[in-house]
Write a structure and sequence with these properties.
Shape: globular
CATH topology of the largest domain: Aspartate Aminotransferase, domain 1
Strand content: 35-45%
Number of domains: 2
Structural class: alpha+beta
Distance between the termini: 18 Å
CATH class of the largest domain: Alpha Beta
Oligomer: single chain
Number of strands: 8
Number of helices: 5
CATH architecture of the largest domain: Alpha-Beta Complex
Helix content: 10-25%
Length: 184
């Protein structure tokens, strides 16, 4: 939220098991309702600022089937506020020091501008220009990249890596929406 405080984190109940050689993790994140002015939320030592966490319910499951080889696959499902999302990630070790990865998630949700301005902030022209009043639709987020651990011959005893990663988020701002934001 623009002008708001950063989220503290989440409280979740999770569990893990295996089915044969397939690890499975599942969890639930209950909604925590707490007013910033209550003793449950407002006192740093007692309330732990609970008003900044778990704004909604969610459930998730993660399955990592054994597909063999050096290409681990993890499938994910997330259901926050009744809007399911499905995703997966793949990673591959290439040689001794290079890891390639790809991940993707599709979920029914509002665009990022609508989530950021959910409190109604911004002029009508700004909201229209950046799509802040759009409803929920399927949004896709993806990333691909590589992580190369530099060899000791180059860095000595230090541990250093070079990381390249590219992201795509269809719920983000388009070029026209960025122009509208810059003109505001």
């Amino acid at each position: 939220m623009i002008g708001g405080r950063e989220r503290l984190g989440v409280f979740a109940l999770t569990g893990a098991t295996t089915f044969g050689s397939t690890p499975v993790q599942a969890g639930i994140r209950p909604r925590i309702k707490a007013s910033a002015r209550s003793i449950r939320a407002g006192a740093d030592n007692l309330g732990l600022q609970r008003d900044r966490s778990n704004a909604s319910d969610a459930a998730d499951i993660k399955v990592t089937p054994n597909v063999g080889g050096k290409l681990p696959l993890t499938a994910n499902a997330l259901v926050p506020d009744g809007d399911p999302g499905l995703g997966f990630d793949l990673s591959e070790t290439v040689g001794d020091s290079l890891v390639r990865h790809f991940e993707a998630m599709a979920q029914r949700r509002r665009p990022l501008a609508a989530e950021a301005l959910e409190d109604g902030g911004g002029s009508a022209a700004l909201r229209r220009g950046i799509g802040a009043d759009q409803g929920r639709k399927t949004q896709v987020q993806s990333a691909f990249g590589a992580n190369w651990a530099l060899p000791g011959a180059l860095v000595g005893n230090e541990r250093m890596s070079l990381v390249f990663e590219d992201h795509c988020n269809t719920g983000g701002l388009s070029g026209d929406e960025i122009d509208a934001l810059a003109a505001a």
